[in-house]
Write a structure and sequence with these properties.
Blueprint: E1 9-11, E2 19-22, H1 28-35, E3 40-41, E4 60-64, H2 66-71, H3 91-106, E5 112-116, H4 125-135
Parallel strand pairs: 2-3, 4-5
Antiparallel strand pairs: 1-2
Pfam families: Sua5_C
InterPro entries: Sua5/YwlC_C, Sua5_C
Domain Threonylcarbamoyl-AMP synthase C-terminal: 28-136
Length: 138
């Protein structure tokens, strides 16, 4: 639980390229560096926790662009109240707190959890994946 999110899973089968079965705490780039080649995307056998619907709070989750996120609640009565919960700027620290923060928000009397989209660099891949699945279709 030091990382907060689930582990990275790599499928290594005889006569197959190593495949990234699930993004996680260890970036795929770090594994590729050790292997000396990039990981192929998983082609079959979805890993636990890699299904389209994984952990999801009871509220709707929306991932918003920076502009949309900043303007949330500027159009009353669409938003009755705003609560800002800042995630750490470091992806490792953010991953460590991720589920704890989501569970804390889940216990609040809100209908929607709006999340600012995460930075595009690879260090945020695992968290971006978890958010995408939380915000995806039910």
């Amino acid at each position: 639980a030091d990382h907060g999110i689930e582990s990275t899973i790599v499928s290594v089968m005889p006569a197959e390229e190593p495949q990234l079965a699930r993004t996680g705490a260890i970036p795929a780039s770090a594994i590729a560096e050790v292997l000396g080649r990039p990981l192929a995307p998983a082609s079959r056998h979805p890993s636990p926790g890699a299904k389209e619907r994984h952990y999801r709070p009871r509220q709707e989750v929306r991932v918003l662009s920076e502009a949309k996120y900043r303007s949330c609640g500027n159009d009353p009565p669409a938003v009755a109240a705003k609560l800002w919960l800042a995630m750490p700027a470091d992806p490792v620290a953010a991953a460590r707190r991720f589920y704890q923060d989501v569970r804390a928000l889940e216990h609040l009397p809100v209908r929607i959890i709006a999340v600012n989209e995460l930075p595009p660099d690879a260090a945020w891949d695992a968290l971006r994946d978890r958010l995408r699945r939380m915000a995806g279709p039910a």
